[in-house]
Amino acid sequence: MRKSPLLSRIYISVFVSFVLMVLLIWMLFVQLSRNVFLNLGTAELTPKAQSLSTIVADYLEGRVSESIIMSLADTGDDNSGVINAYLIITDNTGAVRFMSDKASAKMILDIEKYSSLLNNADSIVRMQSVGIIGDIIVVGVPVKNAAGEMLGTLFLYMPQYEAFATRGALAGSLILTMLIITPIVFLILNVLLYRIIRPIRRMNEVALQMADGRFDLRVNEETFGEIRQLAQSFNRLSKTLKKTFSELTFERNRLVQILNGMTEGIAAIDKAGNITHINPALEKLFAKNTASPDPRMRVIGHKEVWEAFEKTMQTGEISTFQLTEYTTVIHASIAPVKNDNGKIEGAVGLFMDISTEAQLEKTRREYVANVSHEMRSPLTAVRGLIEPLRDGMVTNEDTKKRYYDIILREVVRLSRLISDLMELSRLQSGNLAIEPDVFSIGEMIEDVIEKYASICQEKHIKLTAQSDFDACPALYANPDRIEQLLGILIDNAVKYTPENGEISISGDWSGERAVFRVSDTGTGIAREHLPHVFERFYKVDKAHSGLGSGLGLSIAKEMMDLMGESICVESEEGKGTTFTFTCRMYLNLPEAI
Q1: 3-state DSSP: the chain helix, strand, coil percent, rounded to 5?
Q2: Which of 266, 271, 214 is closest to 238 using CA atoms?
Q3: Where are the beta strands (DSSP E) in 146-302?
């Protein structure tokens, strides 16, 4: 019972109900049995009184002695009478002629009163009175002779406790019966309650284990009545919960996988401001302030982010802003999370790395500005020279020729710029086919060196080949594009190599691919500029010093990518630059083996 509060409460309830029932039965028994046994006593005395009236008539007429009457009635000494009751006889005047027991004066007065009521009456009087012995039962009948004349009255009476002697025995039997039946009832009750409590207890145990996530448990349905229906409902609930929980777990895992697989950072907080979820992308975006006492700052070390979260929680409006993490530009969007009633329960933030988009936008603006600048410069020069020629302000033929030479040079420059733009556009669009062919690099290097020899001599720059390119195996690439690449790299080296400098071309073909290098002893490139040298219009000289349009290296990079080759740059500021590119050797091709 200690382990089952329900069983204890049932036992207590049954015990209290049983005790109340016994008390109620006893009270009803006492109340109802009193009248029943009084009526039984009266019914017992009435025929005795009627039978004794004839003998009493003979006694009043003197034919029967008093000793005979005394032998019939009880006396106060030994209660040995035949009629088992006390007897009082009065004559027709109401005077007491015989009294088997010494009654009280009040009892005598009551008898006299009753005697007067019985005079000239044929009825039987049944009454109760109170004497010195307690409540008594009295039956009175008139006594008449053979002629019907009234001789007196006869009263038989007995104490109430004598009449209730049978009731006491019956009450004792009733109590004994209850004492015998009570343990039997409780034993049967225990068996029945155990059959009811056991499945309920099992359901409670299963419910506790279900609360820990064990939805595969079931209870025994082989019971009866409502308990069986409850067990069936419980098992159906467990099965439904298992299915629902499995579906929710699947959806949760899928959602977590989706969130964790996103390239955008996700952070969610509850209404108390505590972080409930972050994904791996978020951890890569932001630096952490590990020294901060705020646990949120140890995840995202930007105070403005959490201020935006708090603002969204307060206003319910979406907050969007941008912030910079080192060189990374991050776009943040924070939205409130509301329940079905529209109450804000938290907020979720989406953080996107828009560095590429920002760089593209920056490149687009610079591209437009560079194209405009590169085109404006020659056009401005041409316009500045054509206007005085048109107006006839220049009359000297030598001056006119010099103006024409400048105009031609600027037009050629503009034409070359447009050609480079179109070339780069075709390369980037993928519409330009670059067909590979077998060729020898030795003759190509000699031609390139001879082509740029005069330019290098003018600037007092030494241009040499550091390797025996005639020993290089045949290459498999587009020879025109390789020659164009060499021209771009040498032209770029000439521009940034001061007088008495040196430009060298070297190669190595001992590996799977041939590797060629164009090195100079020029001004070099700062480390922060190296990642951008192959971008369109990118110049180390931001003031547009006139050293080219900035498209040559972009074209070189696009050509090498289309041919499946690589190009890279190494440089140290003030010491020179080396461009390295690869080229496939014909002997290493699978079809050439």
Answers
A1: 55, 20, 25
A2: 214
A3: 150-159, 265-270, 275-278
Residue with tokens 């194209």: 371
Query: pTM to 2 decimals?
Result: 0.40
Query: At residue 353, what are phi and psi to the nearest 5 degrees?
Result: -80, 105
**Smallest Cα–Cα separation from 98: which of 122, 117, 75, 131?**
75
The full 3-state SS of 99-151, as one line of letters, equals ECCCCCHHHHHHHHHHHHHHCCCCCCEEEEEEECCEEEEEEEEEEECCCCCEE
- The mean per-residue pLDDT over the stretch 98-125 comes to 58
DSSP state, 61? T
Average pLDDT, whole number, for the chain? Answer: 77
pLDDT at 116: 60
The side-by-side arrangement of strands in the sheet containing 150-159 is 96-99, 86-91, 150-159, 134-144, 125-131
pLDDT greater than 70 at residue 79: no
Half-sphere exposure for 513 (CA within 13 Å, toward CB): 13
The span from the CA of 118 to the CA of 154, in Å, is 10
| Average pLDDT of span 480-508 | 88
* Largest CA-CA distance found in the chain, in angstroms, rounded: 201
DSSP annotation of 223: S
pLDDT in tens, 125-180: 555 544 444 567 778 888 888 887 888 888 877 776 665 666 667 777 777 887 88
Counting beta carbons within 10 angstroms of the beta carbon of residue 368, is it exposed (0 to 12), middle (13 to 18) or buried (19 or more)?
exposed
* Own/partner pairs, 1-5, CB within 8 angstroms, 24+ separation: 4/197, 4/201
Residue-wise pLDDT for 414-465, tens only, equals: 776 676 666 656 665 656 667 888 989 988 888 888 888 888 888 889 989 9
pLDDT at 402: 80
298 DSSP assignment: T
In the predicted model, is pLDDT for residue 77 greater than 90?
A: no
Contacts of 459 (CB under 8 A, 6+ apart): 494, 497, 499
Please answer whether residues 424 and 555 qualify as being in contact, where contact means their C-beta atoms are separated by less than 8 angstroms: yes
Distance separating alpha carbons of residues 145 and 90, to the nearest angstrom: 14
Element (H or E) spanning 453, and its range? helix 441-458
